[in-house]
Amino acid sequence: MHSLARRRYHRAAPVILVALLLALVTGVAWAISQATSADAAVTTTADDVTEGQKLFAANCASCHGLDATGTEGVAPSLVGVGAAAVDFQVGTGRMPMQASGPQAPAKRTQFSQDEINQLAAFVASLGAGPAIPTAEQVDPALGDAANGMQLFRTNCAMCHGSVGGGGALTQGKYAPNLWETTPTHIYEAMLTGPQSMPVFNDANITSEGKRDIIAYLEAQDAGSPGGFRLGTIGPVAEGLWGWLIALGLIIASTVWIGARSS
């Protein structure tokens, strides 16, 4: 019986079994890491960079230069701005600009998303910079709107208003309305700091915090629990309407009483 057991269970079997388990765990971990890396950014190829360079030369080089190092007094260097900056500026139609002004307004984009990705791939190849965020990073369903409200009102409300309705700045500039901005573009704006906006890197607002802000802004489109929005610019508008209605009623009452007494 003992000899039969020795033939069935070799002394090297435990070592082989452990090795097989380690190989299995390593394989699973590698597969997960590959899936995470694939989701971390838009996949680009050498062909994307080449096509992006052609698009850049035809549409952007007149201001930014063929090597994207910028031109003095006209346009800044794009070396190191990253794919996120390109996706935001081109994806919102701000670039290419139609005319010089204190601020590039959002407008209908001139490129397809594939072309935007190719432009972003070319600019990203010039120097390291922020990447386009993943779908998970910008998913408002995964965010905490209550925490987002606190972060937004601490860091953003002084320009964009308490609920993201926008507001005027100095020298003809303005903070745009955020209600129609996509979650990806909101995240990219915080990450890259376009125009007058400061940069909020992960040391200022974490990736989870940015997602919470997106969740808060998405909640503003769910309706106004207080009734009419009145422009959603805060207590000034509400107070003005209150005074107009109250004063109107007082004047109307005075006229009616005067007419009756005469």
TrEMBL record:
Catalytic reaction list: a quinol + 2 Fe(III)-[cytochrome c](out) = a quinone + 2 Fe(II)-[cytochrome c](out) + 2 H(+)(out)
Residues the entry annotates as binding heme c 1: 60, 63-64
Description of post-translational modifications: Binds 2 heme c groups covalently per subunit.
UniProt-listed InterPro entries: bc1_cytC-su, Cyt_c-like_dom, Cyt_c-like_dom_sf, Cytochrome_c_Oxidase_Subunit
Coiled coil segments of this chain: none
Residues annotated as signal peptide: 1-31
Principal location listed in the UniProt entry: membrane
Enzyme Commission no: 7.1.1.8
Superkingdom of origin: Bacteria
A Pfam family this chain is assigned to: Cytochrome_CBB3
Name of the protein described by the UniProt record: Cytochrome bc1 complex cytochrome c subunit
